[in-house]
Amino acid sequence: MHLSSRVYRKLRLLLVATLVISALAAAPALARGGKRSTGGSGVCLVTPNPLNQLPYIYTVWGSGFPPGMVVNVLVENTLGTAVLLGTVGADGTFSTSSVANSKGTQQVYVRQAGDRQATDLAHCSFVVD
């Protein structure tokens, strides 16, 4: 067995553990609902907006975040909340994509993964026709 394959497996395990921890950390904040704390200087944008062509694939873009930060992108609609993950690059930006599962206005909140205070670092919205 090569050392590189061992390192690769450990890195993969670390990534999976990080994703699981991020999802678990987001759950109490999602359950609390209603109350939102703001405190970020980041910006988010969703393209395309409005979203009016099947399949309803959209991309959330963010800028103004610390490099290396892992972010939870919460997309709220009438069916509930989807949590997307993103990692901020060296230039302070991130992007993550998904498929919309309902029509109407979708609210997007960007938070630092693992933030127990559930502080919104950025907010934007988009419309699915």
Description:
Helices cover 23% and strands 43% of the residues. About 20% of the residues have low confidence. With 129 residues, the chain is of the alpha+beta class. The strands form 2 sheets. Strands 1-8-7-4-5 form a 5-stranded mixed sheet, covered by helices on one side. It has a 3-stranded antiparallel sheet with strand order 2-3-6, with no helix packed on it.
End-to-end C-alpha gap: 53 Å
Q: Roughly what is the average pLDDT, rounded to an integer? A: 80
Report the top-level CATH class.
Mainly Beta
Estimated helix fraction: 10-25%
User: Number of folding domains?
Assistant: 1
Number of helices: 1
Proper CATH architecture: Sandwich
Question: What is the SS-derived class?
Answer: alpha+beta
- Point out poorly predicted stretches: 13-38
The CATH topology turns out to be: Immunoglobulin-like
CATH 4th-level superfamily:
Immunoglobulins
Summarize the biggest pleated sheet: 5 strands, mixed
Strand order of the largest sheet: 1-8-7-4-5
